[in-house]
From TrEMBL:
<protein>
    <submittedName>
        <fullName>Pimeloyl-ACP methyl ester carboxylesterase</fullName>
    </submittedName>
</protein>
<dbReference type="Pfam" id="PF12697">
    <property type="entry name" value="Abhydrolase_6"/>
</dbReference>
<dbReference type="InterPro" id="IPR029058">
    <property type="entry name" value="AB_hydrolase_fold"/>
</dbReference>
<feature type="domain" description="AB hydrolase-1">
    <location>
        <begin position="6"/>
        <end position="230"/>
    </location>
</feature>
<dbReference type="InterPro" id="IPR045889">
    <property type="entry name" value="MES/HNL"/>
</dbReference>
<dbReference type="GO" id="GO:0080030">
    <property type="term" value="F:methyl indole-3-acetate esterase activity"/>
</dbReference>
<dbReference type="InterPro" id="IPR000073">
    <property type="entry name" value="AB_hydrolase_1"/>
</dbReference>
<dbReference type="GO" id="GO:0080032">
    <property type="term" value="F:methyl jasmonate esterase activity"/>
</dbReference>
Length: 238
């Protein structure tokens, strides 16, 4: 299976737009690259109340017309894992970019609570109906973008959207179909959203050669897109 095809999947409150600087860098390295909006994100208008984890997984699979390396940022660790469990034949490799790797029987919200620290909470505000949460602009730079250019932070804050809660509360148990897919992890070493030590805990059962690191924040796609593209290229073509 070729890994020269790469699908990029955004995290909470973001959209395909967050990969704007990484896509041309990967294309320059010879990869065919796509980025998608998950349901209710970016240009997708699915109502928040209708979004499920399975809907996320199916959206990922629908974007794959041939096997590709699928990169999931942050929250997207759950959707890319679910997609691999549904149909591993379409996925050449999973790459968790400072992302949650599901533990058996736990939804993302419960898994996040297993981390030794909860730095992300100061930057999130739940909606009045409890169906979603949003990023608080006054804490966004500190938590998500501390080393990103000012223009990138402004670009992001103009586009972030409410994040449906339901898919993050859905427990996942992954089986042999998921286990058949190669996987890699990229730790962000100064992450202000997901504690770096918890990222390393989640990657503890990965093969050591499949665990990589980047300096900097939770948003390497803005802070160091060329370095991220170089690393993804190396993972795709070891």
């Amino acid at each position: 299976m070729s890994e020269r095809d790469i699908l990029l999947v955004h995290g909470s409150c973001h959209g395909a737009w967050c990969w704007r600087d990484v896509m041309p860098a990967l294309e320059a390295r010879g990869h065919a690259v796509r980025a998608i909006d998950l349901p209710s994100h970016g240009a997708d208008r699915t109502p928040v109340a209708e979004v499920t984890l399975d809907l996320y997984g199916q959206a990922i699979l629908a974007a794959l017309d041939r096997p590709a390396m699928v990169v999931g940022h942050s929250m997207a660790g759950y959707p890319i894992s679910r997609a691999a469990e549904i149909d591993p034949s379409r996925i050449a490799r999973l790459v968790y970019l400072c992302a949650y790797v599901p533990w058996p029987g736990l939804g993302l919200v419960e898994m996040r609570r297993r981390a030794p620290r909860q730095p992300i909470l100061k930057a999130l505000e739940k909606s009045a109906d409890g169906l979603s949460f949003s990023i608080l602009p006054e804490h966004a730079r500190e938590v998500f973008y501390h080393d990103c250019p000012d223009e990138s932070v402004e670009y992001a804050l103009a586009r972030v959207c409410p994040q449906p809660v339901r898919p993050q509360e859905t427990p996942v148990t992954l089986g042999p179909r998921y286990a058949s897919v190669p996987r890699s992890y990229v730790v962000c070493e100064e992450d202000g959203a997901i504690p770096t030590e918890f990222q390393r805990t989640m990657a503890a059962d990965f093969a050591p050669a499949d665990v990589h690191a980047l300096p900097g924040s939770h948003s390497p796609f803005f802070a160091r897109p060329a370095a991220l593209a170089d690393l993804l290229h190396d993972i795709a073509e070891p």
